[in-house]
Amino acid sequence: MRPLTREDVTRAVSGADDVTIAQIIGTGATVDELAEAQAWLANDEPMMNDGRPLAHGRVRELVDILSDLEDGEDDGNDAGPAPGSASPAG
Q1: pLDDT tens string for the chain (90 positions)?
Q2: I want to staple 85 with a disulfide (CB 3.0 to 4.6 A). Which of 17, 29, 36, 81 is the partner?
Q3: What is the count of structural domains for the chain?
Q4: What domain range includes position 60?
């Protein structure tokens, strides 16, 4: 299997910035390893039920990078109460 290219990463990981893309490519992972990492993040229960060992090596690195990317996206959504929600009087 060949290592990931920038095109592979941008196709598979929407919203990834240049630094994240470089980190992912820098792991030396393959397309299959990126797909496996995404599967672990999407839902690890079927993977464990299938008897797969926990992610390790390059797949584990990818899980960590992708997890950080998801956490960063969540941080942008905490800008305050939703429009129309009541705020405490004070």
Answers
A1: 788 999 999 999 988 999 999 999 999 999 999 999 998 888 867 666 677 777 889 999 999 999 988 877 765 544 444 444 444 454
A2: 81
A3: 1
A4: 6-72
Question: From the CB of residue 13, how many other CB atoms can be counted at a distance below 10 Å?
Answer: 18
Count the residues in the chain: 90
Answer yes or no: are the C-beta atoms of 40 and 67 closer than 8 Å. Answer: no
Residue 78 belongs to a domain: no
Q: Which residue has the tokens 């920038």?
A: 6
What tokens does 79 get? 């800008």
Q: In this structure, is residue 84 part of a structural domain? A: no
Q: How many CB atoms lie within 10 A of CB 18?
A: 8
